[in-house]
């Protein structure tokens, strides 16, 4: 799997304006299929400690703090696997 995430991270530049479906597809690409519990889509990450990324709809968008969480997870993934 390629972990050059720079192009995909540009989607996350404005956390208040990210569509749920776009972020869901991005997370599927890097973290696999989510576990769904009610309205929460929960992605398992490959490291210990804080091993989950959680997404939840807020209308057609996602909540801004969740966009920031995904961005941090992608940056950590990129740092671990090199550019």
Question: Could you characterize what this model shows?
Answer:
The protein is α+β, with helices and mostly antiparallel strands and 83 residues long. It has one domain. 41% of the residues lie in helices and 20% in strands. It has helices spanning 6-9, 20-31, 64-81; strands at 35-37, 40-44, 52-58, 61-62. It has a four-stranded antiparallel β-sheet. The mean pLDDT is 84.
Cα shape: globular
Estimated radius of gyration: 12 Å
Distance between the termini: 12 Å
Strand order of the largest sheet: 1-2-3-4
Q: pLDDT under 50 segments (min length 5)?
A: none
Mean pLDDT across all residues, rounded? 84
Which class do the helix and strand fractions yield? alpha+beta
Can you count the beta strands?
A: 4
Q: H/E element string?
A: HHEEEEH
Helical content band: 40-55%
How many strands, what sense, and barrel or not for the largest sheet? 4 strands, antiparallel
* Domains (count): 1
Helix tally equals: 3
Strand % is 15-25%
SSE topology sketch:
Layout: H1 6-9, H2 20-31, E1 35-37, E2 40-44, E3 52-58, E4 61-62, H3 64-81
Antiparallel strand pairs: 1-2, 2-3, 3-4
Compose a concise summary of this entry.
This protein has 83 residues and is α+β, with helices and mostly antiparallel strands. The protein has helices at 6-9, 20-31, 64-81, and strands at residues 35-37, 40-44, 52-58, 61-62.
What keywords describe this structure?
alpha+beta, 83 residues, 3 helices, globular
């Amino acid at each position: 799997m390629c972990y050059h995430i720079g192009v995909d991270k540009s989607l996350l530049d404005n956390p208040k304006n990210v569509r749920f479906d776009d972020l869901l597809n991005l997370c599927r690409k890097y973290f696999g299929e989510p576990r769904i519990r009610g309205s929460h889509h929960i992605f398992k990450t490959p490291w210990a400690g804080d091993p989950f990324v959680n997404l939840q709809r807020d209308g057609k968008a996602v909540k801004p703090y969740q966009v920031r969480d995904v961005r941090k997870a992608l940056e950590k993934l990129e740092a671990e696997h090199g550019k």
